[in-house]
Amino acid sequence: MMIRLRVFFLPLLLLVFLWVPVLPASACVGKTLVIGATEEPQQQVLAQLLAVLISERTGTTVKIVRHKTHRQLHEALLRAELDMYVEYTGVGQVEILGRDPISDPKALYAAVKQSYNSELNLIWLKPFGFDAPGVAPADVPAEAAPVVRKDTLKKFPALARLINKLGGRIDLATIRRLEDEAASRPPEQVARNFLKANRLI
Predict the structure, then answer these.
(1) What does DSSP assign to residue 185?
(2) d(C-alpha 127, C-alpha 124), whole Å
(3) What is the pLDDT of residue 30?
């Protein structure tokens, strides 16, 4: 009787001990994202907001790489040296695409979003919620928003929804306050404090 019981339960025990949970293919753990930014305090704060949010919520390793100009950031993004960076609608329309200025903010955002998607395979996510005076040519609204490679969003299916949680949360007064804080403490710490205060991490 004992021999029969052992023969019966042995396969079951082997199944229990050999079973290993398999992570879905879309899991972000073990992958690395590269975010570009210029040297300006605003760009550094926004890059850190993205980096901390992504790393804390997905476990993904995030690296921030600095470039001198928006043109260099754009070209690095096209070469797949970056996965994303923060751009301004007016800069994208006039300086990157070489198109005519558009003064209406909604029409401008729609125009650059469509052109980047169809012509460059780059995706504009939701604007953060402020215009950056002086970044774009005069009389052209300059809303800040993340621009992401389309293939990056395919590798990280939940990324767009996560980053869009920052959409509309940062008005001009808020970004100026964060820049002021970053003048006396690390931008990563400033970003982390903001995300915690807004219950995003």
Answers:
(1) S
(2) 8
(3) 54
